[in-house]
What does this fold into?
Amino acid sequence: MEHTAASYLFDPQRRLRLYTRYGMGVKPLADNVRHQLLGS
It folds into this structure.
């Protein structure tokens, strides 16, 4: 059996804004979160 892990980022209206899989790496994850926070 194989297990998967993921992280989710929701906005204040409880909408899914970001889904990342385990092993994505720190830089791509930080870039995606930054993009969501800054909106650019």
Notes: The mean pLDDT is 88. The CA atoms of residues 3 and 22 lie 10 Å apart.
